[in-house]
Design brief:
The complex is a heterotrimer of chains A (about 100), B (about 210) and C (about 950). Chain A is built from one helix and six strands; from the N terminus they run E-E-E-H-E-E-E. Chain A has one helix spanning about 35-40; strands at about 5, 10-15, 20-25, 50-55, 65-70, 75-80. With about 210 residues, chain B is of the alpha+beta class. Chain B folds into two domains: about 5-60 and about 120-210, 2-Layer Sandwich (Gyrase A, domain 2); about 65-120. The termini of chain B are far apart. Chains in contact: A-B, A-C, B-C. Chains B and C meet through strand 4 and helix 5 of B and strand 8, strand 36, strand 39, strand 40 and helix 25 of C.
Chain lengths: ~100, ~210, ~950
């Protein structure tokens, strides 16, 4: 009901301090078909279990970070800035390594 | 052309967003460093007493603030030349203090690794001072400000009265609340409501300076 | 007066008389009294009328557990007289009786209505005709109320102050176990808060020994830095936060460990007339005598399931109460029975009470052998019937924290069987309520809590097994101390399982017959356990009744889910500070001075107009207008790759924008939908100044920083929204006005449309953007917010000769609409694309590389959108509602109106609407259905005012 989350910059705060950015998903690359696009834009896996997700410390340092959380118990395995996130974790249907969401040319 | 328009150096008087409420509470103003500053509320002695025995709140929005972005190299909050240097993350820091205590360009941009923006009027600020100061803050803020969790000289970004904010512990009984300029009136109302209920009152710069001495 | 002679330990100060009023009559008590003890001493036996049947109810628990003495104090309903401290001049009133407490007209419901008003009666009976329900409801509420709230009350009377308290350990319960726990934890250096519900620390020790030794212990705690709260009720357990209500403060305690030493609650017995005034729990009777020196009665009958009642009989006898008889439900009584015998008081083994008789109060108690015949009944005259149905551990908070209970046959109740992490239990609630185990159990819990937060030493570590051993020995040597009471001893009349909601044993049986045969269903159907006592008095009895009716064991029936609040609590306690967070521009004070009509606009308070929106709009066309646009989002985007970043978050291009130039941009989502819009000004090679809509400021900053969060782009964001004030000066005389106060050359040649300049204005450094959404020559001036009033005043002053007027949001809406400028969020929704919103030119698919929404927009670029956003004018003066439906020739909804206004400069009604794309051409006539009216409008695809932007560029 009032679970706690540790911002990697600021430390432990109540969850109302944060904004939820949703589960991490893979952004389809150029030339994706409409079906892939819609799956990415509108469908969520909504897992009952451990997932990685985005959080934003809205009331504090205003940084985005990633949490690994069990959605059934609200137990948080870790929180980390994107650059410090350990590898692993299922990030969605796409193959390959942790996706950059926006290709930087 | 870059960011000159953010510099506060006009011959005009700069005003805090809480000025009207301070005036309504009986503040006597003086222009200092270009800012209209509440010097006292007509009873400096009583204000000092409030700071000693209960909790006084003082508008310190006029403090200069700089945002540093980049490799600031600050491990924790440090006090340099009267200014607080506060890391918010490893890439971002806030420097705040009286205008005269602020760093010059050469101090903030060693090899231009750090980029500086003046953010003085981004953040309004209230100082709460007195033995009940922490109790007053606890009335609208969930941050753990016990000495063991927030020792003197630490900055805690987090929700203050349901708004984004920061709390800087300046002393055993002295906290500075930093919050958005636009919520100044709201924050004054909240602090006034909470502090008055605990026997606190508004205090001017004189009382703050008295507490420093 | 029924005061006893002075004795040590009494809480009253007989030198200090306190006067207060009850139902308008003056009553006297002593300092230290509660309202309840003073009224009882003054002879009052009826304290309230019951919820449904309006039966008399009197003091029963004298410790704030039961609902019998709920009164209104100084107009605020909900106080319990038995724990409410007496104050000079306080106004106490009864709640639920008309015309008065002694004569209550609604008593008829009990006398005649009893058999006819089973559970659900009101809902079943008054449901038809349905239209009369509001009337029924009014009458029923009137009849069944628990008091009424005053229409007006000083704010501080109804709302509490929240107080955050972080701690290492929170101890709930200030009995011996709780105090020992707090002491043990704090001695190891823990930051401890202790919350006690009652007015005084000591728990059961207050009853047994008038709190002997407690004061010293408490003193010890306070000296050790423990924050001790009394009259402080823990309301619930919310994932580690425990709200503790204490008078005008709601402490939100977040502790790392919790010790619950919440004790046990003495249980009533069920028999006919068990709610009569004069039927009292044994602890209640003893509290009256020992703490307040009030003689609870002159002749008492005591009925008990454990030694507790026997001790009470001894204590009452000691203070001069004649004991008519003691009935013990057990076959063998404990040691105190001998002491009673020595005093000539007979203990009847295996006896119980089957009925209490009397009019206004108990006059007779009918005793009978357990399971005996009617012929064996023995009526005894008495004015006090002391009952003790054993003790139920107060596990509710523990259960909320995740503990479990199981039925304990030896004790006849549900006992703690499993504790969650982070939580300790101590004392009676943990099954360690006996004198030899309560202190060690408290100390153990305190040590374990302190150890869990990383405190302690070798000695404290070694103490733990010692204490465990001591507790085990004490437990092993203890015989079963109580028998479970029979579900009900009643053979006739009303026997109340639930005093709060007037639920009788028959109602429970009726509920089972109706099919509500699980305890959770029965609870919802009969409302048993849902009243102010929160199940303290009725949970166990209702489970026992359910077990009897369904021929199950209590273990099979089980308990209902424990939910907060554990104590009934006024809504105002939870309401918090009634101050809405509002953002205000640095110029807001001036708007008030000017009489602005201020309204909410998102998070902001903004001037809607200054009294005359039409005239304000016209002033912009004829002279000049000034609007405060400080609410615009303002983001500084800096870095070597700032341009590349903007190319990726906007569908159009910014890397090629020249310094000091401005370009309009629409932010779209990856689904190609419009999120926000604004202008982007390049200040220098590496610096862009981005404005967003007022409502989108926070979201766009989050959006940009999200895309940057895991990117390698060398880009830095700074949100300047609140630090920079902005005004828009617009109108044919704007150039003359601004030129009067700035050193910037504002001629059209030197400073053309969509250019930006920095300079001083009225002495203040400003960024001036030559843009405007209102159709006239305009300058958007940005400056440090601290100079807001100064800049505003200077411009109004300079504009005075030119007829300048401040204008608000409403005239701005009119002016924007004349230019067909899309208002994101008003004219667009979450499904609008730039193609549908008539802005295909904003999407640059020929750009290199990826950008947000690119793939989706490529798809949308290939197809015609179903609907398009266009302008319209009305053929008559009718202003259609925003949201009115555009219908096709068959009358089927095909679109909607998003904006509509009367334009004073055009002299007609204009608007914007989404219409089928096939119709989106100039001159097409459409039908708008507006609340039943059919209106005709003509479509326009180009701005109504200055369609080619000549004025704007001039």
């Amino acid at each position: 009901m009032s679970f706690l989350l540790a911002c990697p910059n600021c430390g432990v705060r109540e969850v109302s301090d944060f904004g939820y950015g949703g589960e991490i998903s893979s952004r389809p690359g150029a030339g994706a078909d409409f079906r892939q696009l819609n799956a990415y834009n509108y469908f969520r896996r909504n897992v009952a279990g451990v997932q990685r997700e985005w959080w934003f410390h809205r009331s504090g340092c205003r940084a985005w970070f990633i949490a690994e959380r069990d959605t059934r118990t609200n137990r948080v395995m870790f929180t980390a800035l994107p650059k410090d996130v350990p590898p692993g974790g299922d990030s969605g249907p796409a193959e390959g390594p942790e996706p950059k969401r926006l290709a930087v040319s | 052309m870059s960011l000159e328009f953010l510099t506060l150096d006009a011959p005009a008087v700069a005003r805090s967003p809480m000025e009207r409420q301070a005036r309504a509470a009986g503040a006597r103003f003086e222009v200092r460093d270009g800012w209209n500053v509440a010097v006292d509320y007509g009873a400096p002695e009583r204000e000092r007493e409030i700071c000693r025995t209960a909790a006084g709140w003082a508008d310190v929005s006029h403090l200069a603030k700089l945002e540093l972005q980049g490799d600031h190299g600050l491990a924790g909050v440090t006090r340099r030349g009267g200014a607080w240097w506060c890391p918010v993350s490893d890439r971002r820091a806030l420097v705040l203090g009286a205008r005269g205590s602020m760093p010059g360009p050469d101090e903030t941009e060693p090899e231009a690794r750090v980029h500086v923006v003046e953010v003085t009027s981004n953040f309004a600020a209230l100082t709460l001072i007195g033995p009940l100061a922490r109790e007053v803050v606890a009335r609208f803020c969930a941050l753990d400000l016990r000495p063991q969790a927030t020792p003197v000289g630490s900055l805690r970004p987090g929700s203050v009265a349901r708004q984004p904010g920061m709390v800087l512990r300046e002393g055993e009984h002295r906290f500075m609340l930093l919050f958005g300029w636009a919520i100044g009136e709201y924050m004054w109302t909240v602090v006034q409501d909470a502090a008055t209920h605990l026997g606190g009152g508004p205090v001017g710069q004189s009382a703050l300076e008295g507490a420093d001495a | 007066m029924s005061r006893l002679p002075e004795h040590p330990g009494e809480r009253i100060d007989r030198q200090k008389v306190i006067r207060f009023s009850f139902d308008g009559k003056t009553v006297e008590g002593f300092e230290g009294d509660t309202v309840g003890s003073a009224l009882y001493a003054a002879g009052r036996r009826t304290f309230s009328r019951s919820f449904k049947y309006h039966r008399r109810r009197g003091l029963m628990c004298c410790s704030g557990q039961c609902p019998n003495c709920i009164v209104a104090v100084d107009g605020a309903p909900g106080a319990r007289a038995c724990t409410e401290p007496l104050r000079e001049g306080m106004r106490v009133e009864h709640l639920n009786a008309r015309p008065g407490l002694e004569f209550d007209a609604m008593r008829a419901t009990d006398l005649v209505g009893g058999p006819f008003t089973p559970p659900g009666f009101y809902y079943k009976t008054f449901i038809r005709p349905r239209r009369l329900w509001p009337l029924y409801e009014k009458v029923l509420r009137h009849a069944a109320g628990l008091g009424r709230l005053p229409r007006q009350q000083p704010e501080r009377m109804w709302r509490t102050e929240y107080r955050r308290r972080h701690a290492d350990v929170l101890v709930v319960g200030g009995g011996v176990a709780g105090l020992e726990a707090a002491r043990a934890a704090s001695r190891l250096g823990a930051d401890v808060v202790l919350a006690e519900e009652g007015p005084e620390l000591g728990g059961r020790r207050l009853v047994d020994e008038a709190g002997e030794g407690i004061a010293a212990l408490a003193q010890d705690l306070r000296a050790g830095g423990v924050e001790v709260l009394t009259r402080a009720s823990a309301l619930g357990y919310f994932d580690g936060i425990v709200p503790v209500w204490q008078g005008d403060t709601l402490h939100q305690v977040r502790a790392r460990r919790h010790v619950f030493a919440t004790g046990g609650i003495e249980q009533p017995l069920l028999f006919a007339g068990n709610d009569l005034p004069g039927v009292m729990l044994s602890d209640g009777a003893r509290r009256l005598a020992s703490l307040y020196s009030v003689k609870p009665g002159s002749r008492a009958v005591v009925v008990t399931t454990s030694d507790r009642g026997l001790h009470a009989a001894l204590a009452l006898h000691e203070v001069g109460v004649e004991i008519a008889a003691v009935a013990d439900l057990r076959q063998l009584s404990g040691a105190p029975a001998q002491d009673l015998g020595e005093r000539g008081i007979r203990v009847l083994p295996r006896h119980t009470v089957v009925e209490a008789r009397g009019g206004k109060a108990v006059a007779q108690a009918v005793l009978a052998p357990v399971g005996g015949e009617e012929a064996d009944e023995r009526p005894l005259d008495c004015d006090l019937l002391v009952v003790s149905g054993g003790s139920a551990p107060a596990t509710s908070l523990l259960l909320q924290a995740g503990a479990r209970t199981a039925y304990d046959a030896a004790r006849g109740g549900f006992a703690l069987s499993e504790l969650p992490d982070g939580v300790q239990a101590a004392g009676e609630v943990a099954g360690a309520g006996e004198p030899d185990s309560v202190a060690p159990s408290g100390e153990l819990a305190g040590l374990e809590a302190a150890h869990a937060v990383g405190l302690g030493d070798e000695r404290s570590g070694a103490r733990v097994p010692e204490l465990r051993e001591a507790l085990a020995v004490a437990r092993a040597g203890r015989p079963a101390v109580a028998v479970p009471p029979p579900a009900s001893g009643a053979r006739r009349g009303k026997c109340f399982a639930c005093l709060c909601e007037d639920v009788t044993s028959k109602d429970i049986a009726y509920s089972v017959k109706e099919g509500y045969d699980s305890i959770e269903l029965c609870k919802r159907y009969t409302t048993v356990t849902m009243g102010p006592c929160q199940g303290r008095m009725c949970q166990l009895p209702s489970i026992a009744l359910m077990a009897q009716e369904t021929s199950q064991s209590l273990a099979d029936v089980g308990t209902t889910t424990a939910r907060p609040p554990w104590r009934s609590v006024p809504m105002g306690v939870l309401a918090g500070r009634p101050i809405d967070p509002a953002k205000r521009s640095a110029i807001h004070g001036r708007h008030r001075d000017l009489g602005a009509n201020v309204k909410w606009a998102g998070d902001w308070r903004r001037p809607y107009d200054y009294g005359d929106p039409q005239a304000e709009a016209l002033a912009v066309h004829h002279g000049a207008g000034l609007i405060d646009v400080s609410t615009l989002g303002k983001l500084l985007v800096r870095g070597a790759e700032a341009g590349a970043f903007l190319d990726r978050v906007y569908p159009n291009r910014f890397s090629d924008l020249r310094p000091r130039r401005i370009r309009y941009g629409v932010v779209s989502s990856d689904a190609g939908r419009i999120l926000d819009d604004g202008t982007i000004c390049r200040l220098d090679q590496e610096t862009f100044y981005v404005t967003t809509t007022s409502s989108g400021a926070g979201a766009i900053e989050e959006w940009f920083s999200w895309w940057l969060a895991d990117s390698d782009l060398e880009v830095r964001l700074t949100d300047l929204t609140q630090g920079v004030g902005a005004v828009n000066l617009a109108g044919p005389r704007a150039r003359e006005i601004i030129s009067a106060v700035t050193d910037v050359d504002c001629s059209n040649e030197a400073f053309p449309y969509l250019d930006a300049r920095q300079g001083r204005l009225a002495g203040v450094r400003c960024l001036i953007l030559r843009i405007g959404f209102v159709g006239e020559v305009g300058y958007e001036i940005h400056f440090p917010a601290a100079y807001g009033e100064h800049v505003w005043d200077a411009l109004l002053e300079a504009g005075r000769p030119y007829g300048i007027r401040p204008f608000g949001l409403e005239p701005q809406r009119i002016l924007r609409l004349q230019k067909l400028h899309v208002l994101v969020g008003q004219d667009t929704d979450s499904e609008s694309t730039p193609f549908g919103a008539a802005m295909p030119w904003i999407v640059k698919l020929d750009k290199d590389g990826d950008f947000i929404g690119r793939s989706a927009l490529e798809h949308y670029a290939r197809e015609t959108p179903a609907t398009s956003l266009v302008g319209f004018t009305m053929s008559d003066g009718h202003v259609p509602s925003e949201g009115a439906v555009v219908v096709d020739e068959r009358g089927t909804p095909a679109g909607q109106v998003t904006s509509s206004r009367y334009s004073p400069v055009l002299g007609r009604v204009i608007g914007m609407a989404w219409v089928p794309s096939a119709l989106a051409r100039d001159g097409v006539s459409i039908t708008i259905s507006d609340e039943g009216q059919k209106l005709t409008a003509e479509l326009r695809t180009r701005p109504f005012y200055d369609p080619d932007g000549e004025v704007l560029r001039s």
